[in-house]
Specification:
This protein is an alpha/beta fold and about 325 residues long. It folds into three domains: about 30 residues, no CATH class; about 160 residues, 2-Layer Sandwich (CbiD-like), CATH 3.30.2110; about 130 residues, Rossmann fold (3-Layer(aba) Sandwich), CATH 3.40.50. About 35% of the residues lie in helices and about 25% in strands. The strands form six sheets. It has a six-stranded mixed β-sheet, with helices on one face. A hairpin with a 5-residue loop joins strand 4 and strand 5.
């Protein structure tokens, strides 16, 4: 059995340990994650997916009320999401799945739609905005990732085709966005006024301690393993290392590296990797984020120092840093 989201082939003992056909079906669909002892943990939906569902429900409700919408997630899965729509107003509550520490879990996203000549998505109250320029956003931009925005716009266009109109103007807002944002790290990266709409795959991983045990077991059994911190790294690592075991560890880099028994590569975007290899990197260069540091002249000095730290802490570990297109920024030590 293969996880359609990550491409991981579940070991037969894991499959055999699961006694629930329904749970196995959930894992096979990609909406669940099978763990080593046979337990299946449910994936949730990201803020981007939740916003897309609310937006689609709002547009569809211009024709008739609805109680759910069909979406194609950025990872390619077709799903049905519960969302209410009536008289041009759509709402969807974020489903965190079995990720117990999801601070945005349960938040309500509301969308209001009016027919227009083209598709326009407007960020309203409760969606954060950048206070300064960054490599990908300008000051004043809404905190909506490119993948999330494309997902929302696609959902709106699908709904417009379904009800037979050229386009719609959809305004998104989050009644509790400002309050929930206080429990996030948004202010540290220059985002104020609300939460971010994000989601590379459209799904939230259930990263509890139980799942971490299964991840470290995968790492420990691999002769050659690539540890990656996110979905972008995961996709490019599979292409670059087709014969290696590629494991998504997220922010649990230390746990992943501790489980390594053979050859290992740490691969992905710089932020989490450099902060793990050199915890004092941002204090040293006085930038709010690694992403902002990477476009400055000091980036080479920062990477060189982090690679020296790697040699001391993890002898034999190879590190490959990439940008969002998969281009290699640096590799070493």
């Amino acid at each position: 059995m293969i996880d359609p989201v990550t491409g991981f082939v579940y070991p037969d003992p894991w499959v055999q340990a699961c006694t629930s056909p329904e749970a196995l079906d959930l894992a096979a669909s990609g909406l669940g994650v099978l763990t080593a002892n046979g337990t299946v943990l449910r994936r949730g939906f990201t803020t981007g997916t939740t916003a897309a569902a609310a937006a689609k429900a709002a547009v569809l409700s211009l024709r008739s009320p609805c109680t759910g919408v069909s979406l194609t997630l950025p990872c390619g899965l077709a799903v049905r999401v519960l969302a209410e729509g009536s008289d041009g107003c759509g709402t969807c509550r974020k489903d965190p799945g079995d990720y117990r520490d999801d601070v945005t879990g349960g938040i309500l996203i509301r969308a209001r739609a009016v027919i227009g000549s083209e598709t326009v998505v407007i960020a309203g109250d409760g969606i954060g905005r950048y206070t300064r320029d960054t490599p990908r956003f300008r000051a004043g931009d809404a905190a909506i990732s490119e993948v999330a925005r494309r997902s929302i716009e696609r959902a709106v266009k699908e709904a417009c085709r379904e009800i037979g109109v050229e386009g719609a103007h959809v305004t998104l807002d989050l009644p509790d966005g400002r309050v929930v944002a206080e429990r996030t790290l948004n202010s540290r990266v220059g985002i104020v006024g609300g939460i971010s709409l994000l989601g590379t795959t459209g799904l939230v991983e259930p990263w509890d301690d139980h799942l971490a045990e299964s991840v470290t077991e995968r790492i420990g059994h691999a002769d050659r393993v690539v540890l990656t911190t996110g979905r972008i790294g995961l996709a490019h690592a599979r292409r670059r290392y087709p014969d290696w075991e590629v494991v998504l560890v997220g922010g649990r880099i230390g746990e992943g590296l501790a489980a390594v028994r053979g050859e290992a590569v740490l691969f992905g975007l710089p932020a989490l990797i450099l902060k793990h290899l050199w915890p004092g990197i941002l204090e040293r260069f006085r930038y709010p984020t690694v992403e902002e540091l990477m476009v400055r002249p000091e980036a080479k000095e920062a990477i060189d120092r982090a690679f020296r730290e790697t040699t001391a802490r993890y002898p034999g570990l190879q590190v490959v840093l990439i940008d969002r297109t998969g281009r290699i920024i640096a590799e070493g030590p």
